[in-house]
Amino acid sequence: MKPAGLILLASTLASLFAGCLVSEVTEYKITLNADGRSGTFTTIMRNVESDSPDSATQRRDFQALMDRWKGNQYLFDEMEKGLYVKERSLRLEKGKLVWRETAIFADLSKIIPEFSPDKPLKFPLTDTSGQIVKTNGTLTTVQDSLLIMWPPHAKKFELKTIQRSFTPGSNFAKLFRARSK
Q: What's the pTM value of the predicted model, to 2 decimals?
């Protein structure tokens, strides 16, 4: 029942932290330019950690995060998806590791094939581990999932979620501090 473009958007949003990486709070914001197709995609993930109890896996997850922050392969991968990463940062804020990324895109319909400025944008949320704390879309319950819908000609799409029971298996803030010395 999920359109392929929404699955692609969900995988694009989740691709930043594929594997065992999790974040306590995640914010997404898409802002379209006047042309209604190109724009900016901002992602903020607060308290980035590994959910693996295994220390070797945690070290691999941490290294993967460092590679995404400093390496070029992540930039190439995002360009393949239609996103040009302009800025990315990883830093400690209030003792927690925070990822911020700003990317631009030429045509939102290349990232979300069903996107059309003249039609509502619908985004199903089937993951029940998170709680939506902010959106500028309309929330509707459909069967056992939530549907966020933005009206035609919307220029901003915002979503902020928080994990209900956030229990990371790692301490990336400590690893990040040690690496920064």
A: 0.86
- CB-CB contact of 90 with 65 (8 Å): yes
Regions in the chain scoring below 50 on pLDDT = 1-12, 15-16
> How big is the chain by its Cα radius of gyration, in Å?
17
Residue tagged 């694009």 (tokens): 12
